[in-house]
Write a structure and sequence with these properties.
The chain has a domain at 46-258: Spore Coat Polysaccharide Biosynthesis Protein SpsA, Chain A (Alpha-Beta Complex). It has helices at residues 2-29, 59-66, 89-102, 119-129, 148-155, 181-200, 228-238, 259-279, 292-319, 322-343, 351-374, 385-388; strands at residues 46-52, 76-83, 107-113, 134-138, 143-144, 161-171, 210-214, 242-254. Strands 3-2-1-4-7-6-8-5 form an eight-stranded mixed beta sheet, sandwiched between helices. By secondary structure, the protein is of the alpha/beta class.
Amino acid sequence: MQHLFWISVFLMFYTYVGYPLALWLILRSKGAAQPEVVGDSASPNVSIVISARNEEQTIENRLLDILKQTYPMGSLELVIVSDGSTDGTVSKLREMVPTLESAGLNRVDIVDLADNAGKPNALNLAAQRCQGEILVMADARQTFDSNAITALVAELQDPVVGCVSGELHLIEDDEARGSGVEMGLYWKYERFIRGAESKISSVIGMTGAIYAIRKPLYSKIPEDTLIDDVLIPMNVIRQGFRAKFTSSARAFDKVSISPGQEWQRKVRTMAGNWQLVLRYRWLLSPKQNPAFISFLSHKVMRLLVPFLIVTTLLGGFILMTPFYIAAATTLLLGLSVGLLGVILPLSRNVRIVSLAFFFLVLNAAVVVGLCRYLDPRKDMLWTDAHKDQPW
């Protein structure tokens, strides 16, 4: 039991502290950060892919935002798949076509699906219809910095880079102020890890709201895929190309003010991680997965933490020495502080409560996500973008 206790503590420490620290040390040993790639004057044809469902209220602003891009309009096409929308999304899209064409867009392709088949199906269909050399994946809700597409394409000038992720910036308006503290901390933490992974080898996962991929490297994904923005880049890495991250390509979104919305998003993400680990054995093979260590450290280990918490607590109280009891009690106290954040949301304005809350919720989502993925009655096809964070 003593060995199990220390192994559990070590693995938890490695997951949240040791791995980021190792990345930092590797970057330090490599010296100054490498400058980002600056593309040449070529402007390859780019296809912007948007999958949307019931986005009547947001789609017009999204398309007008695309027209603000500095990338040559004549080298851009827009492929939009309406995934069984039941509102006026398609009508709004068709109304926007003359505006888009007059702005110089090379091509506008609107696909109106009668049934809601999910985002993976929409992406597969869109990829088949795209004519550009590069696919830029976008969501219907977020907006782009005006230089975003130019920055993504610049990274792909490097022939060893197969896909590149942009950076999502969360905007906290007056209505949401204070509600997204822990989410902001999480994104800062994730941005560091992704940036370090990108500089060292490949980043594990794209930012779903903004990333680009060479069209020939796009592999059709199963229609029940839960986190396409991880499976798609991992398929690219498997083909021998690098997946990178650039902070020069930025997308913007508002911090969610709905606890239920954020919880559903976390559960779905964790269910998707379980799906990857349990379905695709090649991801767990050092011979078949060129990014095996990063995938293991960044994705797999986080799925084990809830179980490591249990073994740590059991070990501490079973060993029954003052040290082990104190260690287990400290961990239990930390979880209790996180529970305080659940019971009293205003307490999350205190940094330590916010961190404990996020740790507790994240690991609860791992367990619930596993149960939801294994539940044969599950229906992982989400139908309302604003209530459930689509797909």
